[in-house]
Amino acid sequence: MTELLDAAAAWDRLRRIRTTDEALAAGMVADGDGGLRWQQPAASEALELAGRYLPLCLAGPRVAVAQLGQSLDGFIATRTGDADYVTGEEDRCHLHRLRALSDAVVVGAGTAVADDPRLTVRACAGDNPVRVVLDPRGRVPRGSGVFTDGAAPTLWVVGPEVTPTAPGTGTEVLVLPDAAAFAPERLLTALARRGLGRVLIEGGGVTVSRFLQERALHRLYVTVAPVLLGDGIPGLRFPGTPVMREALRPPLRRTLLGEDTLFELELRPGGGPSGGTGSGGRAG
Ligand SMILES: NC(=O)c1ccc[n+]([C@@H]2O[C@H](COP(=O)([O-])OP(=O)(O)OC[C@H]3O[C@@H](n4cnc5c(N)ncnc54)[C@H](OP(=O)(O)O)[C@@H]3O)[C@@H](O)[C@H]2O)c1
């Protein structure tokens, strides 16, 4: 009897797939709808993992995605900057899977200062991406873990006024010539030149909003937690529309992640959900 593919084995295969040929070699076959599915019988979690992450695996060598976990009223942290944690354990696992599928994980200076995040893959199997800190004014403390813990390589991206000294082993400083060089598409091109073509913009709100506003993202994952903060650090902010009928309504998919709801928005071709443009939910 054919063995049932479980979630751990499915993830182990998925995280190594970057092309259709690799997907076929990993045990997938055409599903008749233009997509791919596991050839062998698979547990429901293995099917869900393929549904959620295979489109990203196959999105090509250059893809930019972003994520935010927010409250029902749109905040990604309390007013003191505490984001520990906005969403639940399943969303943390989802975030770590996104990291594992990325060559680089990008955070803004605000997040690096507020959270001193590790940005490594711990909640699932996978390799750590290169950690990229966008810090035009060089305000992130030199003793931050991301510069000193040696857990993964770090690229500290600073402006021309910052003294370019690497704060720790494993940290490289990239000095950009001016503010224009921090434009999202230019940053993504600079990362791609270093072999970092698959990029996760992890936060915070200012950084993700800038990439969204400048149409640099292929897809955006927003997880909404059933919590109200009243005020705090805002998530997405960009110049809005005066009338509802002109509001941005990208194709999306919804997934329940424990008590949270994950919205996966397709913003540009290349990183879009393979399951069409409907909003049909997937069991989390
Ligand atoms: N819930 C979540 O999913 C989540 C995720 C990450 C972070 N957070 C929380 O979010 C908060 C921080 O978010 P935030 O929105 O205040 O700040 P942020 O997005 O982390 O950092 C913004 C700053 O990064 C620099 N920056 C980022 N992109 C840039 C670009 N393209 N060009 C030039 N500079 C760029 C700028 O630094 P300068 O100001 O120095 O110019 C900018 O003001 C923290 O409290 C953290 O805990 C929550």
Topology diagram in text:
Elements: H1 7-14, H2 20-25, E1 28-30, E2 36-38, H3 44-57, E3 63-71, E4 75-77, H4 89-100, E5 104-108, H5 109-115, E6 130-135, H6 145-148, E7 154-158, E8 171-175, H7 184-193, E9 198-203, H8 205-213, E10 219-225, E11 233-234, E12 252-257, E13 260-266, E14 281-282
Parallel strand pairs: 3-9, 3-10, 5-6, 5-9, 6-7, 7-8, 12-14
Antiparallel strand pairs: 1-2, 4-11, 10-13, 12-13
Helix pairs in contact: 1-3
The chain binds NADP nicotinamide-adenine-dinucleotide phosphate.
NADP nicotinamide-adenine-dinucleotide phosphate is lined by residues 68-69, 76-77, 81, 83, 86, 107-111, 114-115, 134, 136-137, 139, 182, 184, 202-207, 210, 233.
Provide structural commentary.
Pathway: Cofactor biosynthesis; riboflavin biosynthesis. Residues 66-232 form the Bacterial bifunctional deaminase-reductase C-terminal domain. Pfam families: RibD_C. It comes from Streptomyces nigrescens. The protein is built from eight helices and 14 strands. It is of the alpha/beta class and 284 residues long. It folds into two domains: 1-58, no CATH class; 60-238 and 249-276, Dihydrofolate Reductase, subunit A (3-Layer(aba) Sandwich). A ten-stranded mixed beta sheet has the order 8-7-6-5-9-3-10-13-12-14, sandwiched between helices. The longest helix has 14 residues, at 44-57. The two termini are 28 Å apart. The model is unreliable at 271-284 (pLDDT under 50). Bound molecules: NADP nicotinamide-adenine-dinucleotide phosphate. The site of NADP nicotinamide-adenine-dinucleotide phosphate has 28 residues, from β3, β4, β5, α5 and β9.
